[in-house]
Fold:
Amino acid sequence: MNAALHASAFDERLPTEVESSNAEALRQIVASQFKEDGETVINIADEKGKTQPITLSPALAQSFLEVLRLVSSGRGFQLIPLDSQLTTQQAADILNVSRPHLIKLLERHDIAYERVGRHRRIKASDLMAYKEKRDAKRAVALEDLAQFDGEHGLL
Structure:
């Protein structure tokens, strides 16, 4: 079997140039067939050259495109099931904040957590819910700031 098939996942390393190039080519193919309001159909050929359609739901197509975007840009990534229990360091890394700042968020009950012995564990779904609310607040603040700049000729 090909050694490339046994390579470690992208959560442990960055993509090679060949992998990034292949991901970009595949991303362009999927993107050209992408329909936000419907199913995306891609025709895949098997080893005998026989094609068959593969239908992707909008959510699956969008997720697939995002993975391809990360790989094609040479970035690694990590898939985290929403029912995962995260350490405080993992949660801080996902939010791109320091671990002490995350602890403050937990102690203020901004993010739900539970204790396992002396350690705090955060459900990935709770962390993502917090992140979504935080990002929505930031987007509103940014819109308000842009509107203020526009009204006062600061652009």
About this structure: The chain has five helices and five strands. The beta strands are 40-45, 51-56, 85-86, 114-116, 119-123.
